[in-house]
Amino acid sequence: MLRSLYDRLLTLAADPRAVWWLAAVSFAESSVFPIPPDVLLIPMILARRDRAFFYATICLVASVIGGLAGYAIGHWGFEAVGRPVLTFYGYADAIRSFEAAFAEYGWWLIVLKGATPIPYKLVTIASGAASFDLLEFTTASILSRGIRFYAVTALLWWFGPPIRRFVEERLGMVVLVCTIVLVGGFVVVRYIF
Questions:
Q1: Can you give the pLDDT at residue 7?
Q2: Which of 22, 24, 140, 143 is the most buried if burial means most Cβ atoms within 10 Å?
Q3: pLDDT by residue (tens digit) across 116-169?
Q4: Please, are residues 130 and 98 in contact by the beta-carbon 8 Å criterion?
């Protein structure tokens, strides 16, 4: 089953419309969606290494715009939308901890969390709810998301064929590790804040 899904993702990744899906997932992941864009970015790079940095740029731009949407949700619609989103992910009570952390670490907290597997939507919504400076938020978002997407892209571009062979030979293990990292990001946020 994993093999057919992987093959299907590689086929979809080569489709010209995949760029639009990548942008949509990158945007939504920064504000409400639980799945990171890596599920599309990685197969797209493996399918077309010559377009790797173009794909990273799509992720960066869409993610920052989605982050601004998450910020708006937190700033203007926290009770109506932000709190239900945080509640859905189990973080509704963590907003006070986020606000305290923002007051102490501010810009660096956004940079750190935006570059890690910690769900970015939590950072964007909390930044808006805490009324963090919008220019600083945007700058930190560009930096952190750029680091995140371009680091993954550079590794895949540089080591493309060996990584592709590794993934294809150990697909079950790779999916398991990626799942652990994704769930781990949610767990880390839950128990740190």
A1: 61
A2: 140
A3: 767 788 889 888 988 889 999 999 999 999 998 998 899 888 887 776 666 656
A4: yes
What pTM was estimated for this model as a whole? 0.79
For 13, counting Cβ atoms within 10 Å of its Cβ (0-12 exposed, 13-18 middle, 19+ buried), the class is buried
Phi, psi of 148 (to 5 degrees): -60, -55
Containing domain of residue 160, as a range? 2-192
How far apart CA 157 and CA 155 sit, in angstroms, is 5
- φ, ψ for residue 33 (rounded to 5)? -80, 140
Separation of first and last alpha carbons in the chain: 37
Classify residue 26 by burial, with Cβ atoms within 10 Å: 0-12, 13-18, 19+. Answer: buried
pLDDT in tens, 160-190: 777 666 665 665 666 566 566 655 655 555 5
Q: Which residue reads 């940079």 in tokens?
A: 111
Task: Write down the pLDDT at residue 157.
Answer: 87
Q: Which long-range contacts (CB under 8 A, 24 or more apart) does 14-20 make?
A: 14/44, 14/47, 14/48, 18/44, 19/55, 19/58
Q: How many domains does the chain have?
A: 1
